[in-house]
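Lab notebook, page 48
Experiment: co-folding of the full assembly
Goal: obtain a model of how the components sit together before planning crosslinking
Operator: M.T.
Materials (sequences as entered):
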Amino acid sequence: MSNLISTTARGPVGVLGGMGPLATADFFRKLVEATPAHRDQDHVPIIIYSVPEHPNLVDALTNNGPSPLPAILRGLGILKRADVQLIVMPCNTVHSWYSEIQDGIDVPVLHIVDAVRDDLLETPVLPERVGLLATEPTLRARIYQDRLAACGIDFVVNPIAEREEFVLKAIKLVKQGHPNQAGLLLECAIQSLLNVGVQSVILACTELPVALASINSRFLDLCIDPTLALARATVAWSLTRPE
Amino acid sequence: MSNLISTTARGPVGVLGGMGPLATADFFRKLVEATPAHRDQDHVPIIIYSVPEHPNLVDALTNNGPSPLPAILRGLGILKRADVQLIVMPCNTVHSWYSEIQDGIDVPVLHIVDAVRDDLLETPVLPERVGLLATEPTLRARIYQDRLAACGIDFVVNPIAEREEFVLKAIKLVKQGHPNQAGLLLECAIQSLLNVGVQSVILACTELPVALASINSRFLDLCIDPTLALARATVAWSLTRPE
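Observation: model returned without errors.
Model output:
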């Protein structure tokens, strides 16, 4: 694709979205707001595939449903034909299939946890004890724990009863269009983590920042938002001329 | 594209976006929020092309720059190859080229003013005197005035000095990432329209609802938001089984 008058250095970014759609919209807005722009043409060129025909990710990862990989690879194929130069996925759980996804397309796929790591490494003092709010498969697959192992962070999760009552219910409520109710539940989960001494909380499911923002939560400042980190990393990639 | 488990009745919607990107993101969020959904798979399948390589629309319409039509048709071609079944354009000014765009692709293009008309016709009492905030070419092309002629509405616009000071500056500020400042300017334009007796105001540039929402303007309730109307019309199309 010719990039007639755009000031960004690279070709379009492909967004594999729809997991869920509101989280994808949240990513898009954060991407636009994170871009230094004076006019339309300064913005990151992106093509967003938000076709939520994939089987439920959590069901698949708990052996209760079919794999979403065929639907994901179909989406990647459509983005590839549109000549995208980078893939981003504003969903944490889907990163359980990161290797298969990267193997399925010959353009780089930016890992959401690498984006979080880059943000963390720019903070003056790394937090030592961090809460992790996520779906059960994201916790079990150790997506954050393993990829951030070098940061020496002690990860804390809520007890299972709190995860079910607060976190998993909140994720479902956002997907159903009730982010306010979800935000109130999440605040309970975060308060519980603060009670055991975490300094920061990673909102490791892209539905969660939407929920907290919708109630303008007092906890937002101490949370790490992987959607925002992914947006920043995408802008940084787009503005960097390839070597 | 097979639509494995989606409950929507139609194939994907193509969004020709990037005019500007923040307005496109605003449309996406409104689309998701306007959709009755219990899970990801209930949402409207969409593919968003937000590659802002098009020359400035207003410059083109005032004979001060090249036509954006080649860039627009390139975007439509990419959406068509992704097998979209409907095109929507969350930008009012681009509808100056509506005929050429509809001629350039063999899937229907939903006109933003038709979406506003459908919303208006559902109100208990049609407003008689309505303010129109838009770019100069949108006003001059009579996109709203002609397409809503049957509604018998008396359209009022601000004097040229107010349009330049308040409306055009506000649009530019949103594109530069300053929606709050833009919102304050817009409130001046709306107050002036209220002073001459309008009952309602059409925010006929998709940057404008973003600006007013960002300051949670007291005028939002009396405004008609074409972005929201387009989102609702898109959801309605997607949920209706083809005959």
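Interpretation: DSSP finds eleven helices and eight strands in chain B.
Next step: discuss with group before ordering constructs.
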